[in-house]
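step 4 of 6: structure.
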Amino acid sequence: MIRIAIFGFGAVGQGVAEILMQRERIERWIGRYEVVAVADSRGSLCSEDGISLKEAIEVKKRGSLPEGKSVMEIIESMDFDVAIEATPTNIETGEPGLSHIRACLNKGSHVITSNKGPLVVAYKELAELAKKKNVKLAFEATVGGAMPLIKLAKRDLAGNEIISIKGILNGTCNYILSRMEQERLSYQQILAEAKELKIVEANASYDVEGIDSAAKLVILANAVMEMDATFNDVEIVGITSITPEAFEIAMEKGYTIRLIAEASRDGLRVSPRLLPLHHPLAVRGTLNAVLIQTDLAREVFVIGRGAGKIETASAIISDLVDIYGNDRTN
Amino acid sequence: MIRIAIFGFGAVGQGVAEILMQRERIERWIGRYEVVAVADSRGSLCSEDGISLKEAIEVKKRGSLPEGKSVMEIIESMDFDVAIEATPTNIETGEPGLSHIRACLNKGSHVITSNKGPLVVAYKELAELAKKKNVKLAFEATVGGAMPLIKLAKRDLAGNEIISIKGILNGTCNYILSRMEQERLSYQQILAEAKELKIVEANASYDVEGIDSAAKLVILANAVMEMDATFNDVEIVGITSITPEAFEIAMEKGYTIRLIAEASRDGLRVSPRLLPLHHPLAVRGTLNAVLIQTDLAREVFVIGRGAGKIETASAIISDLVDIYGNDRTN
């Protein structure tokens, strides 16, 4: 019996809960399980025998979870095998996720996280701690949402040397730029449209300034390319100064403009770059797209949904199967 | 010590040998190994202590391997842990690969193959035999060359239901169609050009009639979608009747034409289809591109080199690491 704790119960945490409610499907992959705790920043539902996820979701819909143990109290007082850490990202302090992950690893629980902050701030420390404690720290959901980018680069391309990783890691920027390409409107006009459609959050600066892309790039650089990178190592230019005229000139020559994050031995960079209109990375809409350049397989592109409640939750589930599942490759 | 036998010593077999000569690189992944036999259809080099791959490649360059044990004699008389089966594909009989793979699995060796024939003819039998003998049958190289398509769909998207797999599985057809798109020349003109550039073999019918794509689709349907499909289940239309006028009309509407192989619960189909010019599957040149449609992660595209000596060999190496390697996902 696998005992699961879910920390953070926003869109991603609830998405995980919704998938875990499909018990028949998931038990085919990992066998029997119970969720013994669900906690958000204000409260929690806990039971050693397993809580009702349906109830947790319904309670959350009406407000927040009932007052109860905090995440740290749950970690200290309850037994669980794997923690799903889905609290909000803070890339400056890594908190509260960093303390949660550290405490879980220290007590010998596996951790699966969608939270970029702790990995941006302390990847090396956490990876070494997981190794020392002989547990897994899995984080497919932190980069590229539903795209199995980390597993693909680290495992499926085994035997290859990874020369560089580059691509589109932020769907909001890609939406804005591909709309500018199609409509020839200004950045401000498209941004306003995107906010109206709720594709972009009210405060979009984290996305459009390239910060979100840079955070993801740091995780890729450390996890896949075995660099020892921090956020300050990334040279960052966002998309706010791109004009319709720039698109005009680019497109006359058969190019478009996308915000590209790139990690190579030359360093880490997030910046608007020209791409041939027919380049596989020149995707439209909110898609993410990444090119993994290797020495044997050469170019491998992966494209998919970089965000979304169920999409991101699916990456967490794939990590869960990875830890507990039967190998189905044969 | 892992003892490897290589059966078939054409481009792919030699590509594998070239990579295995990079001993330091490969031992980092799988530990110590020796290649104890290399065989082609006319001869072989064998030694229980390990042969020189450099010598094997040099000898082969001057003609064929020296007279010696046949593949079946090697399987019967030598000890090895894993066979790399890279003999030429025959999708009607599956031979000679089918007999090789059957004999290797029966004696308890793992098998890694780039040969589509045996899997098209007898996927179910071979998969069950491998399971019964508790050995691995790995075949990433049979579909999509260097693209880690099978591992991605079967393992990285664990927890998902695969709804359909569709895409471009033959680089030759894609080269011809994307040149027709760009140049507005006839199929015959582009085919002649491609033959001159040696992108297309003298006898291209296996490619352009859609047979190669259909064979790969059968493997995907069986291995990834757990269907029980045979070659005769595939409805096949090739690309030989596509006219420049068809491209003209398609492109006026913002579409292009590609040869798409698709497996879904509705059946198996290989046929020229319209794609929006900006669709991620509308790749150019000899690339392969596949869309895996799932219920949770939704659309995941993978694009890469579907052929090439080292590229295809890299898929075989990734299978080898998969069988013997340390898990590097943590």
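step 5 of 6: annotate
 - The first strand of chain B starts at residue 2 and ends at 7.
 - The two ends of chain B are 25 Å apart (CA to CA).
step 6 of 6: archive
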